[in-house]
Amino acid sequence: MHAAIQDPDPVIIMNPKLFYRLFKEEVPDGIETMEIGKAQVIQEGTELTIVSYGASLRVRLKRLKC
User: Fold this and answer.
1) What is the pLDDT of residues 28-56, one digit of tens each?
2) What is the pTM of this model?
3) How distant is the alpha carbon of residue 45 from its chain centre?
4) CA dihedral defined by 13, 18, 22, 23, rounded to 10 degrees?
5) Could you tell me which of 54, 65, 61 has the C-alpha nearest to residue 25?
6) Which of 29, 38, 51, 59 is deepest in the core (most CB within 10 A)?
């Protein structure tokens, strides 16, 4: 979200309410900024691409048993 605020171009952020308060984890004290347009590859494959972000990533990984 921090990168979106700093970006001069319009950015849409969509957060599904289903995942609110579903997970608890430590929050860093400082600001973490991730570059827009870059992705972290969790598991490579040859036949399928699944794109996910945020809390929904945990659900996808659990279903894939990664």
Assistant:
1) 888 877 777 777 787 777 887 777 777 67
2) 0.39
3) 19
4) -30
5) 54
6) 59
